[in-house]
Amino acid sequence: MARLDMHVDTWKKSQKVEDELIPSPNPASRDHWSLGAPDKRISPYALESKEHKNPLFRNFNMKLREYLARHHPSHSIRLEDDLEILPCKALYVDFQSTVTWKSQRDVLRCNSSFHNRPRYDSVIYDAEDDPLAMGELALVFRCFLPNRHTLDLAMIRPFRSSTWHPKTRTDCPIRERKSGVMFIALEHVVRGALLCPIFGASREAFYVIDCIDEDMFLRLHGIK
Known about the structure:
Residues 15-36 are annotated as: Disordered. The protein is an alpha+beta fold. Helices cover 17% and strands 37% of the residues. Strands 1, 2, 3, 4, 5, 6, 7, 8, 9, 10, 11 and 12 form a twelve-stranded antiparallel beta sheet that branches.
């Protein structure tokens, strides 16, 4: 329990830190997310080469182009088209609380060195096959398309629900890591989520912490 309490305390402290925000490409939009702490613009192929030791980025360039062709066909991305992305280390997500119905904000990190330690937060996102789909942020970025449009995307390491339970008694929901990565549009991100590794487990399993706030408790336990 002490380890879970430590994760919750760290999460709450991180929500108070603000980073440099980058402007929305459409100032008149009412997007519920913002990007912050940007890096330099880079091509997907150059990023794949830069991260060649990280298996999560294997075939990143081709996977991104396949995602765009399948999920955003109106932009007509071709293999020979030049793409650029702007990686960001912070993601701000505004959501409506299921408790007060007022707006709340989660500050999420996707940073290999946040206060000298890697920090990759997790999110709840909309999915057709899972009412509480979750994934760990591996990359948050703005994608610049040849037609001068932009898309705000994330590459995530998805989780799946688990019927396995540790011997330690707990009421926390359990998630297991799926293999591989996937892309999602940031418009589908609902809010942040806090997951804690189950140490000593025979698999890559995590507790979903339901006590970070009242909204998370209601969402995880299906209380309306």
